[in-house]
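Now for one protein, fold included:
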Amino acid sequence: MLTDKDREAIAAAIRASELLTSGEIYCVVAPESSDYREVPITWAAAAALLGPAVLLLAGVEVSVPGLFNSGWTAAQVGDIAETAARGALTGAIMLQGLLFAAVGLLAAWAPVRRRLTPRRLKRDRVRRRARELFLAKNLSATRGRTGVLIYVSWAEHMAELVADEGVSSLVDAKAWDAPMTALIAGLKRGEAGEGFAAAVSLCADILAANVPADPFDNPNELPDAVVELPPL
């Protein structure tokens, strides 16, 4: 996902930026933020439930010709009607099973699953994953609670920024729009390293204005290298 040049550019940007602030900037990239396993099941269930209704709307009917011909007894008519109903029900169940399996398998294929996943769900999972990583990577344990996480999830084409309370209490949430815009612009150009570096630099300007560096006491509490997570 990243080249060695990208990694070097990101690490250099973090090192340079943290000379200006007591804040800690941490960059993470992930192949995907969720496996969205419920998406194929949802689409398969919907197809199975709607299949018989679609056939009825299309005009498919179950008929039993000749039921009222002379010579049929009431018992025979009842038996034939019951057989026809059972056949129709069995056919509907088989159709539903086939639709569930076919749509489920198709929707489980990663490219299809990603297209079928609602954008709102993707955004929610990316945001949730970013917050989980913020805690898992100990960004909340920095001395001044000044950690900032920049997170990119490749499959969703989404990014998220999480700032700890020592920074978020001082900075307007809209101030982070500029770093995220720069990051996304770089990613869209296929220049991830430059996008991250630009975002880190803009974050550093915000942090330096609110939590400037102490020239006599400014430890580097978190690694500067970008973290690349394995596939889920």
The first strand starts at residue 24 and ends at 30. The chain is about 55% helix and 10% strand.
